[in-house]
Each structure stands twice: as C-alpha cells, then as structure tokens.
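Final report, Chapter 2: Outcomes

The project's central promise was a pipeline that accepts a single protein chain and returns its three-dimensional structure in a standardized token representation, suitable for archiving and comparison. That pipeline is now operational. To close this chapter, we reproduce one record exactly as it appears in the project archive, with the input sequence first and the structure output second.
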Amino acid sequence: MEQKKNTNAYAVVMAGGKGERFWPQSRLSNPKQLLRLLGNLTLIEQTIERLSAIFDYSHIIVVTNTNYVAPMRSLLSHLPQENIIGEPEGKDTAPCIANAAAYIRNHAKGADPVLCLFPTDHIITDTAAFYDTVNDSLAVAEKTHQMVTIGVKPNAPMTGYGYIEVGDRMDFPARTAFRKVCGFKEKPSLELSEIYVADGKHMWNSGIFILNLSSLVSALKQFAPDMYRFYEGICAYYANRGTESVLASLYRTVPEISIDYAVMEKAGNIVTAEAAFDWDDVGSWTSMRNQIVPEKNNNVVRGLHAGLDTSDCIIVGNSNHLIATIDVKDLVIVSTEDVTLVCNAKSAQRVKELVKLIAGQSDLAKFV
C-alpha cells in the first residue's frame, strides 16, 4: 500500500562521513556512502530509495562534504540539486543538523516543520514496519513536541554501538511502543554491553531522530549556545544567498560535536520509539557478515578466493584478482588495486586508527 506523505516533514540524510573503517575501498575521493558494498546500489541510493516512499523528493535533504556534492548530485539526479548541501569541513552531526535545519527553515512553507534525521549506513529490509515506526514518530513529534529517537532491541553485546537507557512506556495512541529516555551510553565495554543486553532496560541507539524545528532550536539555545549562534548564522547565509567564504568562516568557528553530546544527553523531552523492523548499522568490515551468507567454513567472500584451512574470515576483492589463503582464521582481508588490508576481525574498528597513521606519513598519504 502506498504511504501517505507528510507535507510538513523533511528527511535529512547525513552523508558527510568518510567511512574510514571501510578503507581501503573507502577513500577521501570515494567515501563509504558512494560504494556498492551490498548489492547494485550505493548506500546513499538505498537510503534515498527507502525514504522516498514517505517523503517527496523535494522534502529530502542530503548534507555531505563539499567535495562529494558533485558526485552526489550526479548519482541522485532525481533530487532537487539544491537539496544536496555541501559542508566545507566535517564537524560531526550537530553542525550538519543545524545547517540542514537552517536550510529547511528558509524553504519550508509550514511554520514548524518536522525534521527526520537519518544516517546513510543503515540496512533495513522490513520497510513496512520501518514506515509504521517513522509515521508514528512523526505524529508524536508533531503533537507532543517530544524529541523522538528510534531505539533497537539489542540481540548481542555490541561495543561499537551507542545505547539508550529507557524507562516506562509512554501513553501514546500508536502501535509503536514509546518509552521515556533516561540516558545515553556511548560505546560501552564488552562487560557493560553484556549487562545492557541482559537487563532489558537498554536499546541500541540507531542515530535516527525525529523532532520539530522549534524543539531543536529551543534545545540548541538552551544547551548548546555556540551551536545556536551557528544555526542563526547559517539562516542568514541562506536568506542572503551568502558566498562560500561566509559558509567556510562559520564552519571554522563552530565546535566539532555530535548532536547526542550537544543536545540529546541534556534534554528532558526525549522519548524512544521501539523499532519493530530489522536494523543493521554497516559500520565496519565485520558488519558484512550480517548481510552476506557465509560460504564454506563460515567465510564471507566477495570476489575471487581460494583457501586451505581458512575459516571465519571476511574476504573482499574483485573478479580479476585472486586472494589465496592458508591456515588463517578470524581475519579481514580486503584487496584493492593499490592496497591490501589484513587485520584481525576483532580489530576491525581500529582500521580508522590505521588510516590516520597512514595519512600522517607524506610518502603514504596518497593511499588514504
């Protein structure tokens, strides 16, 4: 059944990250959201396709790095080109969201539009349940002015995810269960994450937020005055059709901070919508295991591979280059035209550290 589109709501797709944990496929010139990691569509195309069922294309805003605006506009030609916004530098999610909010304030016909904030690296196959959760969250945000985050019931102790501590169920007339947010817990230790999974009081933080523009602006003014001043500056930039140098100047002075730290951890009017849909955050090479059916010996393979006594490995290459292995276990092996990565699967989150190390060496920086 076709979804009814909310004309007062805007989807903001946060697509400015470099995706360093997917190096060496993800590079400065070709970030994760432009890769075809899973299937024939890039991650950004999958996200836009999913959102287009509940938002008109004119109400979908993509915020990315200035360097990625041209390829994004080419790839997403069905979106209004001005809706793909470039940031002169990445300063985490709070400035990204403040920028999008200012853009929407300048374009929206309604007095208090609803902002729906989505990362680009989610895999969701049960779209019907996803739409139900988003639509229920939209209704709650519009009617109650609560800020809504979507939480996912954890089924494993994941140390790479943020967690939300939740309280009693809210009395909202919706199929989706809403619970009061009691706190945010960032990427806990394995021991702590095991407790969170067992106690039933914690959910994974999906990074999806749904809130009225007025609620966001009020929270910025109260909890993040620097970010509020940045928002006001960006509003003036859009209203006056400012130059790139004006935008760059605003970004140079704004703090680098996530929306979680800037606002969500401090605000009291936050509720969590309990996701009734499947959800996976494609955050590092090990997440490929959740999306690709393992071959013999529990190996996840994309490309050509031949191995002896090789098990529990994630092996990514192409159809023109053979990756051959002997007596290896629990490895991530990724081969590109100019780089080969080999790491312990338990250390996949540290690829970002490795990229930083390489970027700091002048003779190796070209590989980043």
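Archive annotation: The first strand starts at residue 9 and ends at 15.
This record, like all others produced under the grant, will remain available to the consortium after the project formally closes.
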